[in-house]
Amino acid sequence: MKPDKFTVHCSDSANGVRVDISEIRQWHLARGFTDVGYHVVIQPDGEIQPGRGLNVVGAHVKGANEGNLGICLVGRDKFSKAQFDAMAKWIENVRRIYTIDPWEVYGHYEFPSAREQGKTCPNMDIRRIHWFLSTGDSRGLLPYLAEGKV
């Protein structure tokens, strides 16, 4: 699989509380997945935990996993600046390796299958993520920052 896009998710767990990738893996195995569905899980402290290999098809967007790298921010609707910074750095590094267009970053809610399932994940306007990724300006993330400041 050659990655050509990223999809941002949330763990739909308590904001600011660590949920190790091993626990998320168990949730996914219980649903019949062969492994954790995401390629990375980003903890509230900014730690990036690897999931599926970048060359392995994920299981995070029904009907749209081919070439799609899944990023899970731990939390429900408020995330730390450390999480956003870690995500930006990871996306930029992977984007350069695979020459992925910088605008190929989506929120899970943007896919038809997610809308059909009533998903709002990652519970933020992905356009604000695009702005942050392209400019480094985190002021647009303010509504989603756990710290309530940039």
Folded structure, characterized:
By secondary structure, the chain is of the alpha/beta class. It contains 4 helices and 5 strands, in the order βαβββαβαα. A 5-stranded mixed β-sheet has the order 3-2-4-1-5, with helices on one face. It starts with a strand and ends in a 15-residue tail after the last helix.
Tags for this entry?
150 residues; alpha/beta; 5-stranded mixed sheet; 5 strands; 14% strand; globular
Task: Summarize the model shown.
The protein is 29% helix and 14% strand.
Helices and strands, in N-to-C order? Answer: EHEEEHEHH
Assign an overall shape: globular
The low-confidence parts are none
Largest sheet: 5 strands, mixed
- Taking Cα atoms only, what radius of gyration do you get, to the nearest Å? 14 Å
CA-CA gap between termini:
36 Å
Estimated share of beta-strand residues: 5-15%
Helix tally? 4
Query: Quick check: average pLDDT?
Result: 96
Strand order of the largest sheet: 3-2-4-1-5
Number of strands: 5
Helix content: 25-40%
Counting helices, strands and paired strands, the structural category is alpha/beta
**Oligomeric form of this entry?**
single chain
Question: What's the layout of helices and strands?
Answer:
Blueprint lengths: L4 E6 L10 H10 L9 E3 L5 E3 L17 E6 L7 H18 L6 E3 L4 H5 L9 H10 L15
